[in-house]
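To start, an entry.
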Amino acid sequence: MASERCCLFLEILISIILPPLGVFLHYGCCSLEFCICLLLTILGYIPGIIYAIYVLVAVDHQPYRTSYYEPLA
């Protein structure tokens, strides 16, 4: 439990310095969240930070990831 909080704290700190890197560490390179964060950071640094922190703290994609890999039968 404390390890997850520590990782989240470090991801937020990295996201403040370089927003796409923090999202990359959490979601990976070819995710939709990473592409949106990269685009927002290119268009403006502050919107990239806001989106990165929002995605890391508020959005939980864990239930959606497991539903893709469940067998149909």
